[in-house]
Amino acid sequence: MRIRIFAVAALLCAWLAPGAIGSALAADPVLKIGSTPTGVPFTFLDTKTNTIQGIMVDLITAVGKDAGFAVEIEPMQFSTLIPALTSNKIDLIAAAMFATAARREVIDFTDTVYTYGEGLVVPKADGKDYVALEDLKGKTVGAQVGTAFVDPLQKSGLFPEVKIYDTIPDILRDVNAGRIGAGFADYPIAAYNLAQGGFPEARLVKSYKPSIVGSVALGLRKGDPVLAKLNASLAKLQADGTVKKILAKWGLE
Q1: Is 157 left (phi over 0), alpha (psi -120 to 50) or beta?
Q2: Claim: this prediction has a pTM higher than 0.85
């Protein structure tokens, strides 16, 4: 009896330990994928189907099909994705998340899916052609919690206040209403939201040159052996044009 108890305990420890997806694939081919409902076109809540859709959902579904697993999308706020991954509440992250050096200290990332920088959004009444971060000195600005843009903005010393928002539409709403002088957000997400026409008094500054450029990738727990399999599938989907088709479907090149 004692030997049986120890064996069960050992199996549980192996299952719960970081890096356990490799064995999970063999035992349970459905992986929980953390994603966000507000990162259109990368991820968003489709109110017609009440499901998370977008580039990263299409991508992880295609990767799973090639690598031999199905996906179950778990919607959650961007700032909770990494804690959910490290506490084993989810198996992978598929969202508009930069693979930054700081994040790489906590989790691993696959090869790059897409690269971009921050977009600058200002009230339409502000017609200045901003080029650099320094051009906005003295303004109250906004950024999304948990993103790679917050820390550089706060440490720049250029702004009296950097307001932190839960979502990018929240930032655009305050820019649109003139409550902040500028908002910084993922360029493709900001552009997509503005193109829908819901923020008519805000504009994307086309002359602005991003200073915080990063690469979006899939996130997984440190040391998980499934990384090689994910990268192999990504490379295959890049080579056969699948990734390009997914990006084009959602308006990105």
Answers
A1: left
A2: no
